[in-house]
């Protein structure tokens, strides 16, 4: 009767034998992600790919083959993102860009989930022993670093453009805005690092610029009473609508910025005070 070690050795798979098998699964997964409805994975196929990784790693779950597979996992994601995802986004602007980004992020999460199942044995031992990022984290960060590293300015500007359109009372796809902003947090698996660094500060500056322009125009063209009504309307809009897109940490400061730009900026104080006095004079001359 064969020993346990002998049985395992009979099932060992060399790197050059196992990688083509895994590539079959990757190619099929990409077809599914890209919209081929005729493709799907059976439980037998899933076990075939998982077993391939398992048998490539045994009997040393922290050995060289595991390092090769961990790098292969990274390479699969990077190649797909750079060859398929990034070109699909480049050249698009504003809402069309955000719609494609939303779709691609959703697809990428599905791809990461399946790939991390195929390579799951790495998470069980190799990742822990070597203190490396888990497969799920690697998948999310690959997307963020390659897509947002290249296109964050365009993505963020598209978000702010749509929010400004809504501030002008245009209808926008609110769910789209929420989902895109959520990527900054989801990619960091709940951390606010990317949201703060790559979105929040620029969003505050864009908001200040938007309302500074409004304050300059309104202070010259409307009465004091109408100006203050606009201020209240804007603050209500930010509280009720725009703040809902952002994390809790942003909402208080956002309202402070709006209020400061509309009410507290000294450059408009003289004009507003003159308008207030004029309104008061007109009311005194024409009492109801």
Run of helices and strands: HHHHHHHHHHHH
Mean pLDDT: 89
Low-confidence stretches: 1-10
Shape: elongated
Number of separate strands:
0
DSSP strand (E) fraction? under 5%
How far do the termini sit from each other? 108 Å
What structural class is derived from the secondary structure elements? mainly alpha
Helix content: over 70%
Q: Give the helix tally.
A: 12
| Radius of gyration using CA atoms only | 28 Å
Largest sheet: none
Give a written overview of the molecule.
- With 288 residues, the protein is mainly alpha-helical.
- Helix content is 80%, strand content 0%.
- It is built from twelve helices and no strands.
- It has helices at 4-11, 15-33, 43-57, 64-89, 94-118, 120-130, 135-167, 174-186, 193-221, 224-240, 248-264, 269-285.
- α4 (64-89) runs parallel beside α7 and α5 packs antiparallel against α7 (135-167).
- The radius of gyration is 28 Å and the shape is elongated.
- The termini are far apart.
- Residues 1-10 have low confidence and may be disordered.
């Amino acid at each position: 009767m064969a020993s346990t070690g002998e049985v395992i050795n009979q099932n060992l798979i060399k790197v050059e034998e196992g990688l083509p098998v895994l590539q079959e699964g990757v190619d099929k997964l990409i077809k599914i992600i890209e919209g081929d409805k005729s493709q799907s994975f059976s439980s037998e196929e899933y076990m075939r790919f998982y077993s391939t990784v398992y048998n490539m790693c045994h009997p040393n779950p922290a050995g060289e083959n595991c390092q090769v597979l961990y790098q292969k996992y990274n390479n699969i994601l990077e190649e797909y993102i750079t060859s398929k995802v990034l070109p699909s986004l480049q050249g698009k602007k504003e809402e069309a860009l955000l719609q494609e980004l939303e779709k691609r992020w959703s697809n990428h999460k599905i791809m990461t989930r399946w790939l991390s199942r195929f390579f799951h044995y790495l998470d069980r031992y190799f990742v822990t022993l070597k203190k490396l990022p888990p497969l799920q984290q690697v998948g999310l960060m690959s997307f963020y670093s390659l897509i947002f590293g290249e296109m964050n300015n365009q993505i963020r500007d598209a978000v702010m453009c749509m929010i400004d359109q809504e501030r002008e009372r245009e209808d926008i796809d609110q769910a789209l805005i929420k989902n895109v902003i959520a990527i900054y947090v989801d990619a960091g698996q709940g951390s606010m690092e990317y949201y703060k660094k790559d979105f929040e500060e620029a969003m505050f500056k864009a908001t200040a610029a938007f309302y500074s322009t409004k304050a300059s125009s309104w202070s010259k063209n409307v009465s004091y009473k109408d100006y203050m009504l606009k201020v209240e309307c804007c603050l209500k809009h930010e509280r009720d609508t725009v703040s809902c897109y952002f994390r809790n940490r942003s909402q208080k400061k956002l309202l402070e910025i709006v209020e400061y730009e509309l009410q507290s900026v000294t450059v408009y104080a003289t004009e507003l005070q003159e308008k207030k006095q004029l309104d008061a004079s007109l009311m005194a001359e024409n009492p109801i």
